[in-house]
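UPF0335 protein FHS54_002252
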Amino acid sequence: MSEGNVAADQLRLLIEKIERLEEEKKGVGDDIKDVYLEAKATGYDPKIMRQIVRLRKMPQHDRQEMEAILQTYLSALGME
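Tokens:
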């Protein structure tokens, strides 16, 4: 087997692995969407839940800084 064939086989395997992972990612995305739909059906607000998930991913310091800036902007606009 030549180096070209080995490289082509390796490339094909990597592409197929990416394709499988993309399919799994789509499945997980669909599962997450279903959970938000379930939450909505039981009276929760999915938009707020998404925001909470996003905030929980942030380091505490970054979240606190963002909240402080938000409060400053709201105050400057007379929205408090």
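The mean pLDDT is 95.
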